[in-house]
Amino acid sequence: MTMxxxxxxxxxxxxxxxxxxxxxxxWRGVLEIxxxxxxxxxxxxxxxxxxxxxxxxxxxxxxxxxxxxANKQAAIAQLNKEWxxxxxxxxxxxxxxxxxxxxxxxLHLHGQVLAGEH
Length: 118
Fold this sequence. Notes:
By secondary structure, this protein is mainly α.
């Protein structure tokens, strides 16, 4: 997955550590750096590859994503409800009869092609 400029800029503000530090300092050493700073970007050839975050922060991020998803689903449900209410008029017997009336009438095109809006 490629990152856009804004995402890269946000990562640039975080503490960084090369992937080789995992071997040099050991996993514990890298975790200590991450715990001190709260976040740690692991780089490979100076390109961000991963971000280490505390488990509590990760849980908070997941919770926030779930909240945003629930908000999005609620907004979609509200839009569906509003459109269903608007379109309900088309489901009435009067609307059905009007549509039948329109469709029963012969269409006279006088040699013209009917396409798109006029």
